[in-house]
Amino acid sequence: MYSSNSIGNTEILQVADAVAREKNIDKDLVLDAMENSVAIAARKKYGHDRTIKSEIDRKTGEIKLFREYEVVADDYEPELPEVAEGEEPAEEVEPEGILRLTEAKERQADIEVGGFIRESLPPIDLGRVAAQTAKQIIMQKVRDAERSRQFEDFKNRVGEIINGTVKRLESGNVIVDLGGSAEAILLRNAKIRGESFRVNERIRAYVEKVSKETKGPQIFLSRTCNEFMAKLFMQEVPEIYDGIIEIKGVAREPGSRAKVAVSSNDNSIDPVGSCVGVRGARVQAVIAELQGEKIDIIQWSSDPATFLVNAIAPAEVAKVVIDEDNNRIEAVVPEEQLSLAIGRRGQNVRLASELVGWRIDVMTEDDEANRRTEEFNKLSSLFVESLNIEEIIAHLLVTEGFAKVEEVAYVDVEELASIEGFDEDIAAELQGRAREYLELKQNEIEGTLKSLKVKKDLIEFEGLSGDIIIQLAQNDIKSLDDFADLSRDEFFEIVPDSGLIDSRVDELIMAAREAAGWFKEESA
């Protein structure tokens, strides 16, 4: 590239051009590195003065050396280093690279504070040692520039599928050559179960993350993420690439089975058929890339019940019961369809649940009938005991959809009176008894909470009923901070019958941590 013995002025620009072209980096970066190396060589000759700098003319290659001084006020006081207790304070020494204003004006009359004065130095002969130093600095700057360029290139490729060649294997991880000097890593847990690679084998993977490290950009690949499958379908199905068909969701157990929900923006195009392709050619191409992973392609629907019926295929669903408050769906299937709906080790219902985004409980028609009967009897008993009414009246309330005493207490009295066999007097009496029961229960709860010495912040925390707080307090969870310190599993161990779903418990715990000031302490 250039002689290691000397670098003449006429060669400077030629060397910079050659390096910039070879490494595909900005020529100015190479010249900056050269200026730095020349300044280091000059300091060895003129003394290790940090004010010595060099400048290379971008047109002629001429090297200029100079000392540079910053002009400061006459009363400028430099900051002294802190002194440990018992040590003598450091002697005040005039810092390098500054000139007091009075002295500076002797050299340049129109100079002001904040300006710079340059003092030219004689040129130096860049001998063998200086040339070697220059070469080392230039190559280091080149490497730094290459790393920055790689990072900029690949950070914009996050979310793409990339092709590479297996360079080496390290403890189950795969180092992938992406061309040039760029490398990526496919971690062991980002590989599909059971797959292995050989050196020099071609590989396709999803760029999941790019981080900037001191040794250069670290490019992390994945073949197990849901996005990889979605991108593969985009490559195989032109309608997805063109935006006519949209992938609404992917649920995977990499290497085993996956479900993909698709919808079409054109009513004349069948999204499922388009993704499967003629004789399954399109989906088979994706399956081959994913080591034989079975893929169910499903018609997406905005209606949770319809989407569930599609997602739990190949099982047939007889009935769907939706609990919107808790994002929970009951799928009722015939007895002979139960094992198919659940799948091996629960795989089918687990993937369907992930795809739909709701908790799915699968049960047979007989189980559902028995559970309904049990719930009916349980609710009837609740109303008999709490409202002190006959069983037949309790049955009527449950049949009409009442499930809580609160609903009876605060529903419009006309709605109660409209139940067959009821009138306004009966409705008013039922509401009175319901409100009296709730008041007594609230007094009992308050008394219990007081006796358990529960803190006010937990009692007033929105989202936890009095019964739940009592159960928590009985297990020594008596303040908001105590509750915030719980994990979801610990909560369900203490309150197994809370009626709350996992995500709701997570929300409450996070809200408690925020209310208790945990995050403020961390940020401080």
> Can you give the mean pLDDT?
81
Are there runs of 5+ residues with pLDDT below 50, and where?
Answer: 1-7
Envelope shape: elongated
Measured by DSSP, the beta-strand proportion falls in 15-25%
Strand order of the largest sheet: 5-6-7-9-8
> What's the name of the CATH homologous superfamily of the largest domain?
NusA, N-terminal domain
DSSP helix fraction:
40-55%
Please report the distance between the alpha carbons of the first and last residues. Answer: 53 Å
The value of Rg in angstroms is 37 Å
Largest beta-sheet characterization: 5 strands, mixed, barrel
How many strands?
15
Q: Could you say which structural class the secondary elements and strand pairing correspond to? A: alpha/beta
Stated plainly, the CATH topology of the largest domain is called N Utilization Substance Protein A, Chain:P, domain 4
Instruction: Output the CATH class name of the largest domain.
Output: Alpha Beta
Characterization of this structure:
- The protein is α/β, with parallel strands linked by helices and 524 residues long.
- The protein is built from 22 helices and 15 strands.
- The strands form four sheets. It has a five-stranded mixed β-barrel.
- It is elongated and about 110 Å long.
- The relative contact order is 0.04.
- The model is unreliable at 1-7 (pLDDT under 50).
